[in-house]
Design brief:
Catalytic activity: a myo-inositol phosphate + H2O = myo-inositol + phosphate
EC number: 3.1.3.25
GO molecular function: inositol monophosphate 1-phosphatase activity; metal ion binding
CATH class of the largest domain: Alpha Beta
Protein name: inositol-phosphate phosphatase
Number of domains: 2
Cofactor: Mg(2+)
Radius of gyration: 18 Å
Structural class: alpha+beta
CATH topology of the largest domain: Fructose-1,6-Bisphosphatase, Chain A, domain 1
Largest sheet: 8 strands, mixed
CATH architecture of the largest domain: 2-Layer Sandwich
Strand content: 15-25%
Shape: globular
Distance between the termini: 25 Å
Length: about 280
């Protein structure tokens, strides 16, 4: 499935430096996104693996293939998100996994990007590695990003120039000494990349959620994350967190880009070159 275009989607290379955003808009967007993330965390926690409070597995089915799950929770959370955002920010269109892009999204200066349950296969199976992801995006990339991580009882939030917080507490990940001994998150990793990371005496972890994979870099649990396939709604919120935590985002050619298409690497600056070399070598 081709990712829906948002104001930051591009195939022409990296963007210019992001523009400042009105402080009042940032504060309001963070507040509303935080409320929606809390709502989503409650629903996902109550229904993980088919809990009977909301009947999560009712209406569960697949889309493109038998592993491409969708549930009533995905649909309900996205509808709720769209209703709230339409009331609070009527001039900002929404792009969502389940209901697509509003008509004005491709040309709007800002839009919201939502994945109501990132890691739906984990959610259906009862594995607590799934998340709600919401981001406000402009032509320079994510402006606000909020991730609800119900499995760990955390709401992660960031805004351009304001840093990254976990449950309201500022987070600054430690500076890694190198790749050796560290963890790298990956989704759909190439065998050569896994072998290269292991050869560098590091480990690869596949979480089944692109949003949570990138978030681990922001938290300092992993030094890098490599994603081969994803949509804007999978990564927009988490890329905001990672950027505000000091990580660098590059595309498959190694060029800095706030939200690349066709493969991305998120890494702390101290290990960026080493992980990128292993990634690019695996792609040859």
């Amino acid at each position: 499935m081709t990712a829906a275009r948002t104001p930051s989607s591009t195939t022409a290379g990296p963007r210019t430096a992001p523009e400042p955003v009105d402080p009042g808009l940032l504060s309001r967007a963070l507040e509303v996104a935080g409320r929606l993330a809390n709502d989503a965390a409650e629903v996902i926690s109550a229904t993980l693996g088919g809990g009977d409070r909301y009947g999560a597995t009712q209406g569960a089915g697949t889309k493109a293939n038998p592993f491409d799950w969708v549930t009533d929770t995905d649909r309900t959370l996205e509808r709720h998100t769209r209703r709230v955002l339409a009331a609070e920010f009527p001039s900002f269109p929404v792009v969502g996994e389940e209901y697509g892009a509003d008509a004005a999204a491709a040309h709007a200066p800002m839009c919201w990007v939502v994945d109501p349950v990132d890691g739906t296969a984990n959610y259906v199976a009862g594995l607590p590695w799934c998340a709600y992801s919401l981001a406000l995006v402009d032509g320079g990339g994510p402006v606000v990003g909020v991730i609800a991580d119900p499995g760990r009882g955390q709401i992660y939030a960031a805004a351009r120039g304001r840093g990254f917080r976990a449950n309201g507490v500022p987070v600054r990940p430690p500076e890694p000494d190198g790749v050796a001994g560290a963890l790298v998150c990956a989704e759909d990793p190439m065998a050569g990349f896994v072998a290269g990371i292991r050869g560098a005496h590091a480990g690869v972890r596949v979480l089944g959620s692109a949003a949570l994979a990138v978030t681990q870099v922001a938290l300092g649990h992993a030094v890098a994350a490599v994603l081969e396939q994803y949509h804007d709604w999978d990564v927009a919120g988490a890329l905001c967190l990672a950027s505000e935590a000091g990580a660098v985002v590059v595309d498959r050619d190694g060029r800095p880009h706030p939200m690349p298409e066709g493969g991305l690497l998120v890494a702390m600056p101290q290990v960026l070159d080493d992980v990128y070399r292993l990634w690019s070598d695996a792609d040859r």
